[in-house]
Amino acid sequence: MSELERHFEATIAADHRIEPRDWVPEGYRKTMVRQIAQHAHSEIIGMQPEGNWITRAPSLRRKAILLAKVQDEAGHGLYLYSAAETLGADRGELTEMLISGRQKYSSIFNYPTLTFADVGVIGWLVDGAAICNQVPLCRSSYGPYARAMIRICKEESFHQRQGYELLLTLMRGTQAQRDMVQDAVNRWWWPSLMMFGPPDDASPNTAQSMAWKIKRHTNDELRQRFVDMSVPQAEKLGVTLPDPLLKWNAERNHYDFGPIDWDELKRVISGDGPCNKERIANRRRAHEDGEWVREAALAHAAKRADGNRAGKATVA
Ligand code: BYC
């Protein structure tokens, strides 16, 4: 083992953070870029299902809340692309990989948002799952990622509360509103469980990512934590989670739950979910429409750099 490898291993073993200028094995760099880029793409694509409801929010208050939430997601994408850049990735290339289908984003954003209750359920379940998955990432071994996660998690918990509060309001409304919430819960429950990724015995990356302390828990551990957290919240809300096998297991001290349709997850991840094509087409259009902004920003930066050089030359 080289001196550099020994230093890397010792940093991980001591639970210290890896920082951008530290030497890392190529596999660590690749895994980190993959995970951070997929995460960034998920935040940006994740703006679409809810963004769809901004113009149709039922009140000014709901509209302002939703606008703020969707803007937060854009911000999360930006912190994450910046974290990926500290590993030598190029943001433009990452975007190309997303819109050409070479890099993934979370399966959850390929499902449609059919009613305003979906906005509440996304906040409660999707952001709830995101928090469960991301709080341990605040202790991830890569410093810039772990630090970005701290702020992201704070904002996600606001998102989760706004969703739950929206649902509490709907549940105090008419029978039709309660039915709308139940219907949204029925559609989002299983896809939310799939967000945690394939089961541990079919997760190719987990063992190495745990050894490098990129991940602190396995996919199944976090999924179980999410189920345990959600059941009492569903009871309080007065909705039924669509799983007849969901049952408290006193021996395990956890809820048992029914089998997940892993073929559905595979289909959705490989591009064949209900909204994959629409999401990517929208992202591609936004990227193309934004070309003049990127060009203008680059021209402005070049002009300022020239100005700075000229200024320095005069001083010299
Ligand atoms: N969807 O070996 P595995 C958010 C991929 S943002 C799509 O277990 P790993 C939010 C996986 O990437 C939500 N792909 O992988 C935003 C891997 O790909 P490769 C996103 C999935 O990395 C806005 C392959 O399948 N959160 O919450 O050890 C509004 C094998 O899986 C999925 C993050 O990205 C999936 N569900 O574990 C509201 C968090 N699951 O190797 C909310 C950070 C797996 O074939 N990421 N894959 O390219 C992680 O924690 C981990 O990457 C995962 C997967 C737990 C997701």
From TrEMBL:
One of its GO terms (cellular component) is cytosol. Its EC number is 1.14.13.149. It holds the Pfam family PaaA_PaaC. It comes from Kutzneria kofuensis. Signal peptide: none annotated. One of its GO terms (biological process) is phenylacetate catabolic process. Transmembrane segments: none annotated. Keywords: Oxidoreductase. InterPro entries: Aromatic_CoA_ox/epox, Ferritin-like, Ferritin-like_SF, PaaA, PaaA_PaaC. One of its GO terms (molecular function) is phenylacetyl-CoA 1,2-epoxidase activity. The lineage of its organism: Bacteria, Bacillati, Actinomycetota, Actinomycetes, Pseudonocardiales. This is Ring-1,2-phenylacetyl-CoA epoxidase subunit PaaA.
